[in-house]
Here is the input.
Amino acid sequence: MKITRLETIPVAQRFLVLKMHTDEGVVGYGEPLDYTHWRIVARAVDDLAEYLIGKDPLQIEDHWQTFFRSTYSRSMPIIIGALSGVDMAMWDIMGKVLDVPVWKLLGGSVRDRVRVYAHAGGNTPESCAESARKRVDDGFTAIKMGGAVRPVRFVDTARAVEEMVARVAAVREAVGDDVDIAVDLHRRLSPQMAVITVKALEPYHLLFAEEPCHPENNDALLTLSRSTPTPIATGERHLTRWSFWDIVEKQACAVLQPDIRHVGGISEMKKIATLAEIRDIAIAPHNAAGPIGVSASIHTMATVPNFLICEGGTTRGEGLLTPPLTFNDGYIELPAGPGLGFEIDDDALDAMRDERFRFRGMWRSEEDGSFADY
Here is the structure.
């Protein structure tokens, strides 16, 4: 079997489909991505295709190492994003050729289904509470909500902290103590404000506080983790196991959140999870894009002993994947079909094509116009 063509189809700002074609008619699917610059990632896939065409798609590790080691800098998100989609597609092809799900190829499952969470939106305590109730009514046993709804100064007022706490308090009251709540702080806080804010949120027993400060400041993350019993989570912006190593070695957080589209695909996600297992750090994959990446994460997490929970419970591929992922009572069932467990209807995919580019931009303070992380 040989790879004959790599094709990318943009579906949304955060969803780029990769189709890997072979001379035997087997098609593998992947989801390469940078969360803003999908056009550049698609071009990077074209560059990788220059090497891959004519090669055996089942030589996954050899191809992965070739791309990673031949890249001038190993910390290039665009290249790793492209490699992530290629890796998923090769695993999909291998499963289809051998007629087994990817999770069986990875050593078999250590759980019968994979727990997922959904997002609760809203800017006010009341709207957050209503959104959270709807998610629970939909069958979710865990939700994630945003922490700050405006820029937070390096040292902000007591009112700013009270506003963040009030929204979380309203959600806890709305869903009760049997539902897990995670709070995404979106790297918006300085190390000092992170300590203050997470301390104020302790009474609400969070599943985790996500990215409270900038993800490149590992020492600040360690200081925060040692200051609170609240589990601290980070990792959605990190690449490969090498960028996770310092966090794992220092035990700077309780939960790692690698994104399968960013870290190098299924192959690297599995290795990052094993690395974290050595320090008893849990894995909760980030999944804020399309259903192919969610499916690849579900297959991988089925085999990970230190798995906690997976994002993407509402991104199940209805109308595109055949069959879509199956959700029951807060969990996604393990896909039973070969490879990633689905096929894609080309007509449906063409109808969803969206080639628009949307610049993400920055937040600006209403007080003085200064910028802040979004």
Observations:
- The radius of gyration is 20 Å.
- Residues 77-98 form the longest helix (22 residues).
